[in-house]
Amino acid sequence: MRDDSAARRHREAWAGLRGDGRDGPLIGGPRRAGARPPRYFTVHLGFAATDPAVAREQAVAYAEALGLLRPELALGAAALSPADAWHRAERLFCDAVGPDGERCAGGAGHPGFHHAPGPGGLGWGDGD
């Protein structure tokens, strides 16, 4: 009879690292093309503006217009940056998540309370 306590400890150590209790490699094989979860990508569109405030207004208008044409766009992820400094991107929309999963469509850093879309929408956050 063979003592495999070292092999068992090895399997348990790997399972503990993965946290799922299963044996097997940490890195799996490639997934099929249809099995991957959707990922978000960013498109950068350039335009000219006289100053950052005007650029922000134009960027919000462009994002909202594209959102009307293409509802699958994630407007909450829209950001603005100088053309030569993408690392300085700033959000255009608040996108705060409410208690029922709704998202605030107000401008980033807007003052006051959050409201869900529609007249008399549910409010959340720091109200007055």
Give structural notes.
25% of the residues lie in helices and 6% in strands. With 128 residues, it is of the alpha+beta class. The strands form 2 sheets. It has a two-stranded antiparallel sheet with strand order 1-2. Strands 3-4 form a two-stranded antiparallel sheet. The mean pLDDT is 74.
Question: What is the structure about, briefly put?
Answer:
This protein is of the alpha+beta class and 128 residues long. It contains two helices and four strands. The chain has a two-stranded antiparallel sheet. The protein has a two-stranded antiparallel ribbon with strand order 3-4.
Helix content: 25-40%
Shape summary: elongated
How much beta, percentage-wise? 5-15%
* Overall average residue pLDDT: 74
Category by helix and strand content? alpha+beta
Q: Tally the helices.
A: 2
Order of helical and strand elements: HHEEEE
Give the CA-CA distance, first to last residue: 75 Å
Rg value: 24 Å
- Biggest β-sheet strands, sense, barrel: 2 strands, antiparallel
Number of strands: 4
Uncertain regions spanning at least 5 consecutive residues: none
Strand order of the largest sheet: 1-2
Features:
4 strands, 2 helices, 128 residues
Give the topology.
Layout: H1 5-18, H2 52-69, E1 79-80, E2 90-91, E3 114-115, E4 123-124
Antiparallel strand pairs: 1-2, 3-4
